[in-house]
Structure formats: structure tokens, C-alpha cells
Amino acid sequence: MFHTLELLSKKGHSKLISLGLSCAAVLFMSLSPHLHAADEPPARLVSVVQVEKRAISPKIMVIGSVHSRHSAELTPGVSGKLTWVQEAGVRVQAGETVAKQEQTRLKLEQAQQQALIEREKLTLKRLTREFDRLKSLMANKHASQTELDKAETERDMAQANLTLAEIKLKLILDDLARTEIKAPFNGIITARLHQAGEDIAQAEAILTMTDPDNLEIRVHAPLKHNKRVKLGDNLHVYHNSGEFEAKIRSLIPVSDIRSQTFEARIDLPLEMQDAFSVGELISLALPIAQKRLTTLVPRDAVVLRSAGAHVFKIDNENKAVKVQVKLGEGTGDWIAVTGDVSEQDRVVIRGAETLQDGQQVKLQTLPTSVELKAG
Predict the structure, then answer these.
(1) pTM as predicted
(2) Which one of 60, 120, 317, 351 has the lowest number of neighbouring Cβ atoms within 10 Å?
């Protein structure tokens, strides 16, 4: 009887174990989808922009420099001794005196010429009276025609001498005015080439000045590319603080045998004038070929790694697809790419850095404050 009860107890225990295992299997099967879902990365919030195709020109980078549109070496125009020269680094206004010369000799010449003019006036006055007297006598037949003609000639010569003397005085006054050298434009004295007390020649430079507020860019580029640009074209300019576009104001498509370059002068926008100094170097993108249709993506879409560059495009199931690309020419906020990217594709521009290939994404509307410049 005890043996029978023991057998019944063992059978019940086995049934309980089997029942427990069955329940555990059912529970595992019900939780399995949730455990699998937990292994998948969560959907990432990203912003996308559609790929574009535009015609752009291949470009090369050339170096340019910033120059003042007004720069001059000032000369006196008359020989003499300097009495004062303005210091270098001083800002001056147009018409302001920047150097002075000794005036003693010229003032003596002025006084001498004024005395000569008075003498010529007296001579003219005397000969005019003589001509009038002979003319009256001629009317009464008391003077000959020859005497009258002689008096008229002498009077006219005296008038001419007076005119010449007055012109000579004006020349002396002009030389006197040139002894005070004045600034031809607003600017700054950049160099003082002579000191007070030095004797200088008529065409010898005394100082140099430049206008630091009216600037332009000058660039010397390979002569073979001069047909690719024209007056009014906008070129992309790169500098330490960023980039901008500037318009070509003039072209000088003339070169020598050695340099084989042409010069372009480019207006620096007024809003950029304060950001540059005379002599500063900048880079410009110069077109070198005809425009061709190119696939463009925003620069923010490109992820740079040691293995190369790639972008993420979004497929129809809102999953990120990693695409390796080769980079080409840039234009504004966009850059040309070569790879499995087409005009209909959408590429990620926000959130791409940590995105994984095949990851589910959630699209976010691009903020209205974000503007992509076409360049």
C-alpha cells in the first residue's frame, strides 16, 4: 500500500514539472517579438533635403590679394628744400597739407614780377597816349601815316608784354601753391620718404599714401582661362572668416612671355570692406570649362571618414541607406558628388553623423531659418 502511494506521488510530480515547462515555453514565445524589437535601434529623428542637378563649371583655386583703389606717391612739382613732412600712419583728408617747402626764392620772384607788371602798365599807358595824340594830328594832316602806324605797333607790343608778364606771375603763384603738397584723397600716410631740411627735385616722391577704406581684389590667373570669365561675372571668394561672392569690375587680358597670366580686378562688397586690410591674401574659384549638368547635395549631407565620404539617402520604407560618394566642385552650400545618388533621392543633412546603415528614421521638417545657398 505504501509502495502504491509513492508511485502516485512521483507521477503527480512529473505532471507538475511538465506543466511548468509548457507554461514557460508559452511565455517565452509571447515575449520573443518584444525581445527582438528591443535589439533593433530606435527610429532616429533626421532632416532631409532633395538632391539637385544643376549646370556648374569646373573651377581651379587661384590666389588674389587686397589692394586699395587709391594709392599714390606724392611729389612737389617744384624743386626746393623741405620744411615739414607729415608723419607716417597719420590719417588725412582730401586737400589737407601733408608737406611744405621753403618759399623764400619764389616769393622774391613774385615781388619782382609784380614790379615788372607795373612797369609794363606804365609803358602801355604812355604808348597809348602817344598813339591817341598822333591819331588826332593825323586828322588835321599834321602827322604822317607812318608815324601813326609805328605808334600803334609800339602800343600793341606793350600790351603783349604786359600779358606775358601777368602770365609769368601766374606761373610763379602756381609754383608757390605747389610748395604745399596736399592729399589728393582721404587716406593714410604709409611712408615718409624724405625729412625736413632735404633738398628735393621736382619729380622726386616725398611720401606715399593709400586709401584703406575703398578696396578691391586683384588676381593674376593663367592666361589660357581668360576666355572663361567676363565683366560682371560673380566669383566665389574664400578667406579666413568665411566666403562670399564678388563681381568682376575690369579685366586686363594681356600678359608677358614669362608670367602667362591675365589680371582681373574685382569689387569688394561694401559690407565686407571692414573685414580686410590692404595686402591680405584670399582665394578665388575661377571657372576653367563650360558648365555641365552635375549632381549636387548639401555640404551638411556629406559625412567624412578616413575610409572616404558617404551620404545617407532615405528609401521608400523610411530607412537610411549608406552611399559612398566621391566629392567634386563646390558651389555655395552645395557640393558635387559622384555615386549612387539621383535627383529624386532625399539625403540626410541633420543627424547623419550617428546614423547607421538600414536604421529606421523619422523625418523632421527643416527649420525655415536654414537656407542653402546655391552659390
Answers:
(1) 0.65
(2) 317
